[in-house]
Amino acid sequence: MTRTVVVLTAGLTVPSSTRMLGDQLADAVGAAVGARGEAVTFEHVEVRELAQDLASFMTSGGVATPRLTAVREQVSSADGLIAVTPVFSASFSGLFKMFIDALDRDALNAMPVLVAATAGSARHSLVLDHAMRPLFSHLLAVVLPTGVFAATEDFGDPRLEDRIHRAAAELANAVVAVGDQHVAGFAPDPSRRRRTSGNDLAPVGDFADLLRGHSG
Questions:
Q1: CA 78 remoteness from chain centre
Q2: Which of 10, 60, 98, 107 has the fewest CB atoms below 10 angstroms from its CB?
């Protein structure tokens, strides 16, 4: 069985350190899943490319464009998520939060999520615990114990590599456990609510029926 992991990155430049960290995490997860005799595919979502779609969604009362509709389905149907944001004003970026706000309330139920962030200074490292972890816990995701923060000077540091591989091993365990509840370290709750993308809207009744019985 091949698992699917979405790599969500919110870098604003090309190339970006945020995408670089996301790629390094994906490579490490792929190696860790492969070492367990399993297969995984990665689907990359660059939030920057959805900026206009997100602005339209926010200003139209929640009407998603076809491209945003497809990405919402992509995220909610994944087996795991790697979420990486640059740090702006000591928190996740506004564009990153817009994307999360565009997801359905039940899109991430019990989904294993590896949180990561990049910044120019190590002073922002607490963003993982003060912003990212509470955000995904609110959405009922399973936030993995190890988050990965990378300041500019951390790239190429063996200590960052060690943390990447530790977090990747945790996500690999969790992703494999999606189809096998006996894998150590992760046991999905069978009573959890079903994940939904929010794209399936309830049918709208006939307008004449809605007016029937009303006068004036």
A1: 9
A2: 60
pLDDT of res. 203: 47
Q: Is 59 helix (H, G, I), strand (E, B) or coil?
A: helix
The Cβ of residue 51 has, within 10 Å, a number of other Cβ atoms equal to 14
Residue 181 or residue 24, greater confidence: 24
How is residue 3 written in tokens? 């698992």
- All structural domains of the chain with their residue ranges: 2-211
60-81 pLDDT, tens digit per residue, is 999 999 999 999 999 999 999 9
Torsion sign, CA atoms 27, 33, 34, 35: positive
What HEC string does 75-115 produce? Answer: HHCCCEEEEEEEEECCEECHHHHHHHHHCCCCCCCCCEEEE
